[in-house]
Amino acid sequence: MGLVIEDPVIRIEGLSKSFGSLVVFRDVNMDIARGKTTTILGPSGTGKSVLIKHIVGLLAPDEGAVWVGDVNMATAKERVKLKVRAQFGMLFQHGALFDSLTAGENVEFPMKYHRKWSAAKRREVAMEKLELVELEKFYDTPTASLSGGQRKRVGLARAIALEPEVVLFDEPNSGLDPLTSATIDDLIRRMQHQLGITFIIISHDIVQAMHISDYIGMLFDGQLLEYATVDDFLHTRHKKVREFLHRNVTLPEMDEADLIDP
Amino acid sequence: MSGVISLLSQLGAFGNFVASFVRASLTHPPPVERTFEEAYRIGVQSLPILLIVSVFVGTNLAVQGHNAFEQLGGQSMVGTFVALAGIREMAPIMVASMVAAKAGTEMASQIAVMRIQEQIDALEVMAINPLWFLVTPRLLGILLVLPGLTMISVASLLFAAWVVAMAQLGLNGTEFLVQCAEITRGVDLLFGAVKAFVFAIIICLVSCFFGYTSPKGPAGVGKATNSAVVVSAVVCAILNYLMSEMLYG
User: Fold this and answer.
1) Is A110 on the interface with B (CB under 8 A)?
2) What is the pLDDT of residues B36-62, one digit of tens each?
3) Nearest beta carbon to residue A90 from set B125, B128, B129
4) Does the pTM exceed 0.90?
5) In Å, how far are B51, B147, B159, B219 from B184, measured between CA atoms?
6) Which domain holds residue B42?
7) What ipTM was reported for this prediction?
């Protein structure tokens, strides 16, 4: 791969996972850079969401390790994993907001269980986070009344509510129109610069990845085919990666003989 | 053979679910506020249908008791019959069935929807134990209200039977009440409450289990809800027989 990450926030070592006869990962190795935005690309069904679930310890690998600091999420006890998860925020593909609550109550939700704050303090912090995603006027709006893009932004406000070290995004643009997608991309980039925390994004949207990432990796057929800075990624010699990128970006010309076909 | 294996596998999964739930409940503080919210919701939701069904079961017990004892010349035994059948058997299992149909299905479908919309994953990522968050307040809530609902069912059933006995069957109302009082021991009400307690645990854990392990998609929610009410009702009916044998046999 050639990419060296100093002081990674997460280390994935030799990760292998199968569901029955379906092999999802085969010996995946990857370091995630601290305070940067890393996007993991791949066609649908390549296990991108499964990778996120391994990082937060919702799934255990068949082989390998996922290190968050000095904790191996693959083997840690549940109470240790709970402590580590408190350092994570996550934006789910469809928001995963609680429909019985308002937008503001959703953002307050993790504070209620992890901070001994008064109701007024929780409201103040939730309002601050909603302002970051430009939805402060929707504090008292039931989440069921929000549009898809608004739900994602509330989900993002909830993900950063406890000021986590790492925020994970599962397909942040799925189901959104191009304009709303662009708004979400700008929001992610602006927030990463403002907050300086680690963002890990799972996506199949190469345009978004180029727009907001520091590093891009691509999963295909159970392997991490390429993992590099954005510029190096566009100069990839992997045939499959080039095929994947080809529809959306113009790639530098290369001789067929120089390409790698796994 | 595959049916037996599937049943055993489901039983094993249920055992794991219950063990994880007990562990989660013992290692977290009880969610007091949410327990009372659930108790209020389950109680208020189930009360109207419970009252209607209890009243008409009471009227039918009186009419059928009268028909049966009339042929033996024992019309005066109707009060005894209604009290025995109503308090010992009908009220607890009827309340359990109504609550399984009303609150149990809601538990299963709500949790199943949370599962398919990744809200349960969201709880885990937010470092909130989902079993403690979802199941504990529902179990404590149903335990708080089910014995009370059973007593309300007993009272409305007896009242309706008493009214029918007097107004429709022409029996002596005072004699009916005296028979009820003579045959009913305090321990019968206690046993009714014990049955209600056991049924509450079954309904809640079974419904939450099917919701929690729901297959994906809208069809999965429907399947989970259906399984929750069917399994709860069947298990409660079998336990009702076994407990009656133990308590009165």
Assistant:
1) yes
2) 999 999 888 889 989 999 999 999 999
3) B125
4) no
5) 21, 17, 15, 47
6) 30-248
7) 0.81
